[in-house]
């Protein structure tokens, strides 16, 4: 699915990713965790081709992503901050993305699920943060791509929508897709994810299942295990 | 690219500013024709307005659009669309809508006044063509500035400075050098200096086509000999194209390496 070799990225003097290797082969939900500024978003954006790495190779579905843009048709992305062109209406935005991607989509069901019908005719600049995030989710889940990348999907969601989101992620898992998630909410991570990838100072510090993480750190819940992991002297 | 162009263009022609710009030219055209009562004279006055105003509006519009559409750009970058298509599409959308405002805004009053029956039609088309080129050139220069400057205030400042330099300071420096080096033959120098500023180039091109070069004395004669011929016209148009294509190339080149 995703092969990352020797990935390196600097922003000025600040080394964000240093010689990172990551192979994600089988389907499932992968949680990319790490403290603030550990390079989670940079890693995700490198896979999407939004950030150009200084060094290293990335391939998605067996094809290198350099000088390639068609592979993004296989990826659905939910950005961290739901920034949309403010003067478009919700349905215009959805129509535009559909027009750009030219793939089959089932936005109707998602719009109903998140009760967005009353907002379809409203301009995006007038929506609240949570509603924007719902639009964001609809746009990320409406296509049937084999790879989903969700950057902080829970931001601003009410409890009911959060349940819908979890169900959607489980649905994707059952459809044998690969889902990458970043989040700071450990309860959410524990509920949906299979594998934890822990980033620290621009490199992968731990990769394994939640159970492995708990045994390794000797903690009983994920939140404490994650908090303990960086202090642990021995690592993988 | 054409899809991006389409969306940018529709987005812009729905915006209030495009209408303000269009109505301004419409009004200007009608007022000038009403006051001058003569197509050729109106063209001269219009030239003076266009040569200063088109670069200013294009620069500011270009830089504002680029910064304002940051979200749109980021959304597009995650879609299966080529980077160069995103930026070229947006650029052509802005430049296209500005050109449309210019051509329609000035074209309508002149056509209604009887442009097609007058012999100034060539001069008028030349005016519109140079206006269009100035729009293309200054919009892409503004896009380049915006792409290289994350800081909006800085970018805006550079853009205004660029316009000020091209429209005002360049002429001042040019004039000063003519005075300082007046003992030397300056024909080819002034010809060269004119060619390297798109605003001066457009102005000279139109002035000389309007057959008022007699006012310019000896240098005017040299200029007339150069710009008045077909060859001169081709060289000028070529320079305008060069001024358009080179920044477009840089836009594509730089955007390919930028992080978002």
TrEMBL record, chain A:
CDD domains: ABC_DR_subfamily_A. Keywords: ATP-binding, Nodulation, Nucleotide-binding, Transport. SMART domains: AAA. Gene3D superfamilies: P-loop containing nucleotide triphosphate hydrolases. GO terms for molecular function: ATP binding; ATP hydrolysis activity. Residues 2-226 form the ABC transporter domain. Pfam families: ABC_tran. It comes from the Bacteria. Belongs to the ABC transporter superfamily. This is Cu-processing system ATP-binding protein. The lineage of its organism: Bacteria, Pseudomonadati, Bacteroidota, Flavobacteriia, Flavobacteriales.
Automatic annotation (TrEMBL), chain B:
This is Cu-processing system permease protein. It comes from Maribacter ulvicola. Signal peptide: none annotated. Coiled coil: none annotated. Keywords: Membrane, Transmembrane, Transmembrane helix. The chain crosses the membrane at residues 20-36, 42-67, 88-112, 124-147, 159-181, 233-253.
């Amino acid at each position: 699915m995703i092969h990352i070799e020797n990935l390196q990225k600097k922003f000025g003097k600040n080394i964000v990713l240093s010689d990172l290797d990551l192979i994600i082969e089988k389907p499932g939900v992968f949680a990319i965790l790490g403290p603030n500024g550990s390079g989670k978003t940079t890693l995700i954006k490198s896979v999407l081709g939004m950030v150009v790495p200084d060094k290293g190779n990335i391939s998605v579905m067996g094809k290198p992503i350099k000088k390639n843009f068609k592979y993004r048709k296989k990826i659905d992305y939910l950005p961290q901050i739901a920034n949309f062109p403010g003067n478009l209406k919700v349905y215009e935005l959805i129509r535009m993305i559909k027009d750009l991607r030219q793939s089959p989509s089932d936005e109707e069901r998602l719009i109903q699920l998140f009760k967005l019908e009353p907002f379809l005719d409203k301009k995006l600049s007038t929506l609240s943060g949570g509603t924007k995030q719902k639009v964001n989710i609809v746009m990320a889940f409406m296509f049937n791509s084999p790879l989903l990348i969700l950057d902080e999907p829970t931001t601003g969601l009410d409890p009911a929508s959060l349940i819908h989101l979890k169900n959607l992620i489980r649905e994707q898992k059952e459809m044998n897709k690969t889902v990458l998630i970043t989040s700071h909410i450990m309860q959410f991570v524990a509920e949906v994810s299979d594998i934890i990838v822990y980033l620290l100072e621009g490199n992968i510090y731990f990769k394994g299942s939640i159970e492995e993480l708990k045994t390794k750190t000797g903690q009983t819940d994920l939140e404490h295990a994650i908090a303990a992991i960086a202090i642990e002297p021995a690592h993988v | 690219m054409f899809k991006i162009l389409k969306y940018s263009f529709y987005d812009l022609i729905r915006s209030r500013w495009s209408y303000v710009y269009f109505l301004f030219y419409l009004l200007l055209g009608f007022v000038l024709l009403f006051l001058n009562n003569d197509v050729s004279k109106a063209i001269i006055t219009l030239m003076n307005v266009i040569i200063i105003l088109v670069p200013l509006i294009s620069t500011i519009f270009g830089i504002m659009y680029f910064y304002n559409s940051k979200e749109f750009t980021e959304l597009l970058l995650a879609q299966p669309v080529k980077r160069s298509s995103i930026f070229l599409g947006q650029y052509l959308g802005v430049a296209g809508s500005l050109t449309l405002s210019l051509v329609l805004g000035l074209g309508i009053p002149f056509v209604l006044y009887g442009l097609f029956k007058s012999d100034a039609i060539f001069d008028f088309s030349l005016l519109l063509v140079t206006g269009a080129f100035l729009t293309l050139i200054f919009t892409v220069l503004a896009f380049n500035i915006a792409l290289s400057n994350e800081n909006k205030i800085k970018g805006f400042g550079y853009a205004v400075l660029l316009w000020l330099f091209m429209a005002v300071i360049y002429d001042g420096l040019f004039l000063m050098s003519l005075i300082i080096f007046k003992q030397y033959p300056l024909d080819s120098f002034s010809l060269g200096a004119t060619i390297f500023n798109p605003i001066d180039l457009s102005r000279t091109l139109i002035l000389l086509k309007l057959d008022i070069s007699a006012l310019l004395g000896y240098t005017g004669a040299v200029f007339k000999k150069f710009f008045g011929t077909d060859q001169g016209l081709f060289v000028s148009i070529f320079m305008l194209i060069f001024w358009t294509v080179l920044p477009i190339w840089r836009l594509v080149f730089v955007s390919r390496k930028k992080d978002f």
